[in-house]
UniProtKB/TrEMBL annotation:
InterPro entries reported in the protein's UniProt record: DUF5996
Protein name: Ava_C0101 and related proteins
Organism: Pontibacter arcticus
Domain of life: Bacteria
Length: 305
């Protein structure tokens, strides 16, 4: 029996998504401040859990702590290895108020952290402590997004295990507000041109230091104003953008340089898992073949009878 994929509307939920996006940036920057650098910024990502998003374990002096978005009970939970904890309700509140609540909670728990309060990967950013513009949180919209993330993660996990080369976890990037998994050929790539809004070029260049084929899901943006799945390869080989991929609803978005599959095509299909799996596999095969990846060495081969 197929899980029912929830309806998502970027037009209706845009204000909630924008607020939640900025909240995740605040929590993500705490992780950034507490962990050593890992290739391709993998150390900063959040992970999807049965109840929301988590930082997982972070160091704090002689102890440890974790920050969790509970998007089912609509709470932010900070727990520590000393048994102390702090919780507050997630509801419509300004980003500035959320920021001050988080910092105050950490101080009460004896956790020191210093953050760059300017949001990343956004045009016209407002420092967290000054942002009283974004202040919307509709629980049902958040619950639907969380369920979509869980279901997308299931399919992406199954896709991930077919690859034996270097591959990222399935993880949530708070800068771009998307769930992603990335496969690497092992070969170095040309220097990325950078130019991502409010992101140092060296971060993008390190993230794309090697040939990579990435896929993922995001709930919508100004560029693509609807929930969608995506896939791309860097560097892009000749013939990629004009290649035929599955399913029929997928298409190449010239401005983004990515193949796009509208979320609605998955949600409304009789077999969402199958249609999304087709998209992930066909776009990867197209990318890997055109880029001449050593697929035999990088992919799990069928076991001979």
């Amino acid at each position: 029996m197929q899980n029912t994929w929830p309806a998502l509307s970027y037009a209706d939920a845009k204000a909630t998504y924008e607020t939640l996006h900025l909240w995740t940036q605040i929590i993500g920057k705490i992780k950034l401040a507490k962990l050593p650098w890992l290739n391709h910024s993998w150390h900063v990502t959040l992970l999807v859990t049965p109840t929301g998003l988590t930082t997982s374990t972070l160091p704090a002096g002689k102890g440890y702590f974790q920050v969790d978005f509970d998007l089912v009970s609509h709470q932010l939970n900070i727990t520590t290895s000393t048994g102390k904890s702090h919780t507050f309700v997630l509801e419509s509140m300004a980003v500035a108020d959320f920021y001050h609540k988080v910092i105050s909670a950490l101080q009460e728990l004896g956790i020191e952290v210093s953050l760059n309060t300017m949001p990343n990967e956004l045009e016209h950013p407002i420092p967290f402590e000054e942002d009283y513009t974004h202040a919307t949180y509709h629980p049902k919209q958040v619950e639907n997004l969380h369920k979509a993330l869980l279901l997308a993660q299931d399919v992406m996990q199954q896709f991930r295990v077919k690859f034996t080369g270097k591959c990222s976890p399935v993880h949530f990037f708070w800068g771009s507000f998307d769930l992603a998994v990335s496969r690497f050929s092992g070969k170095t790539a040309p220097a990325h041109p950078g130019g991502v809004p409010n992101l140092p070029d060296w971060v993008a260049q390190e993230a794309y230091s090697h040939e990579v084929c990435s896929c993922g899901f995001w709930p919508g943006s100004e560029a693509v104003p609807f929930a969608a799945f995506y896939t791309y390869i860097y560097p892009e080989p000749e013939g990629y953008k004009t290649a035929a991929v599955k399913p029929e609803a997928a298409y190449y978005h010239t401005a983004l340089g990515e193949f796009i599959l509208p979320y609605e095509a998955v949600q409304n299909s009789e077999n969402p898992t199958a249609i999304l799996s087709d998209f992930l596999q066909s776009t990867y095969e197209t990318a890997a073949n055109l880029a001449k990846w050593d697929r035999k060495a990088l992919e799990k081969q069928p076991v001979a009878e």
